[in-house]
Write a structure and sequence with these properties.
The protein is of the alpha+beta class. The protein has 2 domains: 12-54, no CATH class; 58-212, Nucleoside Triphosphate Pyrophosphohydrolase (Alpha-Beta Complex). The chain contains 3 helices and 11 strands. Strands 4, 5, 6, 7, 8, 9, 10 and 11 form an 8-stranded mixed sheet that branches. Strands 1-2-3 form a 3-stranded antiparallel sheet, with no helix packed on it. Helix 2 (176-184) runs antiparallel to helix 3. The protein is globular and about 60 Å long.
Length: 213
């Protein structure tokens, strides 16, 4: 019988990619994998195929003022939410994909300025966690960071975004509690924002204490 406490007994070497073919190449890419992997009860699986959405990796940034206990959220149109949500305009944290030779912190700082006109000091950026967005069908890995900001002179209603990327982005500067209320009311449906707000709910007291010091 498998030991239930022996989690993640397999590694990447226990999965074999027999072939990988590009099935679609546009703004994003779809690859078809032929895969075989080890089984928990011993032996190997049959060879099978999976189509994987290859959209690259991205960074998520939580802009938080621990003195005023405020966060910056952005609102923008998302085509993927047309079918699944009451509104395709999503409330989110700042996020963006990697450019060539960019570090995660570089991406966070660039996207903060592009999407919310926030100028972020690199020394005020700290790593939160990494996670896979939808590993059942997408290879994307998200790198989440926190930026300590001064929100005293920020206000909601700032519009930003890059026109050549068809971005039209509205900023919301709100209390942490207001953001959590929106989450509880189902107004925030973006996965990375849900994860970020839940992390902030667990860690904001520590951040406040660190800022007071």
């Amino acid at each position: 019988m498998t030991n239930l406490y022996n989690i993640q007994q397999f590694s990447a070497t226990d999965a074999l990619v027999k072939s990988r073919d590009i099935k679609y190449q546009g703004f994003f890419r779809i690859d078809q994998y032929q895969i075989q992997h080890r089984l928990f009860n011993g032996g190997w699986s049959n060879e099978f195929s999976r189509e994987i959405f290859e959209r690259g990796d991205a960074v998520v940034l939580i802009p938080y003022d621990p003195v005023l206990d405020k966060v910056v959220l952005i609102e923008q149109f998302r085509a993927g939410a047309i079918r699944a949500s009451k509104s395709p305009w999503m409330l989110e944290f700042i996020a963006g994909m990697f450019g060539e030779n960019e570090s995660p912190v570089d991406v966070a700082i660039r996207e903060a300025e592009e999407e919310a006109k926030l100028l972020i000091d690199k020394d005020n950026v700290q790593h939160v966690m990494n996670f896979l967005s939808t590993p059942g069908g997408c290879s994307e890995k998200l790198f989440m960071y926190l930026a300590i900001i001064d929100a005293s002179e920020l206000s909601s209603g700032e519009v930003a975004g890059l026109e050549y990327e068809n971005e039209d982005i509205l900023s919301h500067v709100v209390s942490r509690q207001q953001a959590l209320d929106w989450l509880a009311q189902g107004k925030i449906e973006n996965a990375s924002t849900i994860i970020g707000l839940q992390w902030l709910a667990m860690n904001y007291q520590r951040l406040v204490k660190e800022q007071i010091k």
